[in-house]
UniProtKB/TrEMBL annotation:
Organism of derivation: Fibrocapsa japonica
InterPro entries linked: Roadblock/LAMTOR2_dom
Highest taxon, organism lineage: Eukaryota
Annotated ranges, domain Roadblock/LAMTOR2: 9-100
Any Pfam family the entry gives: Robl_LC7
Residues forming coiled coils: none
Family: Belongs to the GAMAD family.
Name of the protein in its database record: Roadblock/LAMTOR2 domain-containing protein
Length: 120
């Protein structure tokens, strides 16, 4: 019976996929073990897990040094590049990392699609 009830994690992932630009996600525990991933190879997911957890550890360390409680807790990180945006959220012993295409990358793709339509 429990398997028929919607899983809270699955619900969150389903909602994230509705966002324009959604590309991939990785769920890992805080030991760096990849639990679930989509739209990337396993090797890439493990690589992201290692880098993300290192970034989270260092971010928490420096935020705690810079700010006094209660303003020194890190709930999420957002890393933006020219091509994509990485959103990282930790809760308990788990970390969710979502990759989405940046607005710039999405507008480039739309321009290319429009140009191909005009050529046809």
């Amino acid at each position: 019976m429990a398997s028929q009830q919607p899983n809270e994690v699955e619900e969150v992932i389903r909602e994230l996929k509705k966002n324009p630009g959604f590309d991939a996600y990785v769920i890992m525990n805080n030991d760096g073990i990849v639990i679930k991933y989509e739209n990337m190879e396993y090797k890439t997911a493990v690589h992201h897990a290692h880098l993300v957890l290192d970034l989270c550890t260092k971010s928490k360390k420096y935020i705690r040094e810079l700010f006094e409680p209660p303003d020194n807790e890190v709930e999420s990180l957002r890393l933006r590049t020219a091509d994509y945006e990485m959103i990282i959220a930790q809760h308990g012993n788990f970390t969710l990392t979502v990759l989405q295409k940046s607005q710039k990358a999405m507008s480039k793709k739309e321009t290319v699609v429009e140009e191909k339509k005009e050529e046809a």
